[in-house]
Amino acid sequence: MATGASLDPYITRPKVYVLGRQAVVSEELARFLDDEGLQFSTDTEAAAEVLAEIAGRTCYMSFGKGRKTNEQYLENILTSKHGSVLEHAVWNLLITGVSRSLTHELVRHRAGFGYSQLSQRYVDEGDARYVVPPLYQENEELRKKWQETIDLVRKAYADLAEATSQYVLQKRPEMPARDRRKWARQAARSILPNATETKIFVTGNARAWRHFLELRGSPHADTEIRMLAVEVCHALKKESPNIFHDIEIYDEADGMPAVRVTHSKV
Ligand SMILES: Cc1cc2nc3c(=O)[nH]c(=O)nc-3n(C[C@H](O)[C@H](O)[C@H](O)COP(=O)(O)OP(=O)(O)OC[C@H]3O[C@@H](n4cnc5c(N)ncnc54)[C@H](O)[C@@H]3O)c2cc1C
Questions:
Q1: Whose CA is nearest to atom 53 of ligand 1?
Q2: Which residues are catalytic?
Q3: What atom in ligand 1 is closest to the CA of residue 110?
Q4: Where in the chain is the domain with CATH 3.30.70.3180?
Q5: Which of 86, 108, 265 to mutate to test the pocket of ligand 1 (most atoms within 8 A of CB)?
Q6: Nearest protein Cα to ligand 1, atom 1
Q7: Per-residue three-class SS string for the chain
Q8: Is the CB–ligand 1 distance for residue 178 below 6 Å?
Q9: Which of 47, 85, 144, 245 could hold 22 in an S-S bridge, CB 3.0 to 4.6 Å?
Q10: For ligand 1, atom 26, which residue shows the shortest CA distance?
Q11: Distance between CA 262 and CA 174 in Å, rounded?
Q12: How far is the CA of 251 from the centre of ligand 1 (A)?
């Protein structure tokens, strides 16, 4: 399957698509409150925030008591580091325009995340796009050198994949064509660079996303993943102002945005 043939082969920024968010099943919430003889209402429309509040209030059966607004309720969760409550808020993000080196770092985040990533065995990388490292985006000469190298690799991959396909056909003529292609690609992909674009579907809970933003939005992180963290931060702050209100994007001294977290590792 060819992808991206008509697109610019060089990518300069990641894209984040919020493909999934939660919904509250209000009839079931009403049934629970009725069964327990409780009163509860909250002032947020964001299901993730409602669910996190209900999860927290279940711990102490504090429905209708204590803090009045969802923002106040979740602020107390953050300050008291009752972070497990935030695991009930979940988003599904589709991330594109990132390099294989970025996703190698991303998938090191284990707790609270699930991943599905583009396969270089099934997908023909002959039309692959490449992510320009931020440092090369600011220097014309270095970018040119980088691009020349990528162009060499692109051609080498196409030649090698073709030669490998011929060899696999001779070696295993009985094999279905789809499997032969997989065999050829799984060998030829070994020469693809870290800069090769990939796409990854990531499901994460709010606690895990907060940890990712803290570690990868920091100026100590690699710049490409830091720019991804900034995009994710924009998206999640829009999704849930109350869960992510203490996390902010600011301009670092290096001229790039970064992410700052007030309540560290909730
Ligand atoms: C600036 C930077 C540089 C890095 N450099 C390197 C490097 O050179 N080499 C390298 O290999 N990695 C490197 N890493 C990756 C780093 O070591 C972590 O693997 C990665 O950041 C994921 O962090 P985490 O383990 O806290 O996250 P997650 O896996 O998401 O875990 C979240 C939290 O859950 C808890 N947790 C998760 N799993 C376990 C467990 N098995 N046991 C106990 N507690 C657990 C921990 O409290 C953890 O912080 C770097 C990361 C950063 C941000």
A1: 215
A2: 216
A3: 29
A4: 1-21+90-158+193-266
A5: 108
A6: 221
A7: CCCCCCCCCEECCCEEEEEECCCCCHHHHHHHHHHHCCCCCCCCCCHHHHHHHHHHHHHHCCCCCCCCCHHHHHHHHHHCCCHHHHHHCEEEEEEEEEEHHHHHHHCCCCCCEEEEECCCCCCCHHHCCEECCHHHHCCHHHHHHHHHHHHHHHHHHHHHHHHHHHHHHHHCCCCCHHHHHHHHHHHHHHHCCCCEEEEEEEEEEHHHHHHHHHHHCCCCCCHHHHHHHHHHHHHHHHHCCCCCCCEEEEECCCCCEEEEECCCCC
A8: no
A9: 47
A10: 109
A11: 61
A12: 25
Distance 83 CA to ligand 1 centre (A): 17
Determine the atom of ligand 1 nearest the C-alpha atom of 113. 30
Per-residue pLDDT of the chain (266 residues; tens, 9 = 90+): 344 457 899 999 999 999 999 999 999 999 999 999 999 999 999 999 999 999 999 999 999 888 789 999 999 999 999 999 999 999 999 999 999 999 999 999 999 999 999 999 999 999 999 999 999 999 999 999 999 999 999 999 999 999 999 999 999 999 999 999 999 999 999 999 999 999 999 999 999 999 999 999 999 999 999 999 999 999 999 999 999 999 999 999 999 999 999 999 99
CA 227 to ligand 1 centroid distance, Å: 19
Residue type, 231: E
Ligand 1 touching residue 109 (CB < 6 A): yes
State the architecture of 1-21+90-158+193-266 in CATH terms.
2-Layer Sandwich (3.30)
